[in-house]
Amino acid sequence: MPELIGPDEFARLFETFEHTAWHLETRRGYASDREDPDYAAFLKTGQVPWDLDSAWNQNIKRQTDAGRSVGRVRVVDNPPTEGQRFLIGYAGCNAASGEDVGCLWRADAQRINLLEEDFWIFDSRLVVVLHFDDADVLTSIETVTEPAEVVRYSMARDAAVHHATPYEYFAAQVSATE
After folding, report:
1. If you write DSSP's letter for every residue of 22-33 in order, what string do you get?
2. What angle do CA 25, 31, 86 make, to 5 degrees?
């Protein structure tokens, strides 16, 4: 049965997962990114500042150094939105912290019938679906543990990973067309 959790409980999952944490990013932008000072710097310079000392990056580094796996695939429009360009630029920071980051063109995601939801999977047993409003503001965080639903999300993860391009190659493709 789906259950809503708060931001603090969601944040704890990144410290307590045992083996894997994986994210499918499907949004064209995130309000939380647009509120970040790094986003404003990106808009001015075209470069994304990295903060490898942030709490997020330090935790991901600890987790991956301990042998846990963290990854994500970003679904990207063609041409990418500003928010997606920001995230492509930040992918290097994610990777430097130990994440496996890939990107997938939205047309390819649609061709393979990939889910359109933003979600995380923890340890292949817990799915966290992130719900947003039309302004890209996170409105609720839903957990899913029903086995058939977890398998459905896991199949989407496997398809996304299979069809994704590693971020560094994808970023080079995007740069070549700008």
Report:
1. EEEE--S--HHH
2. 60
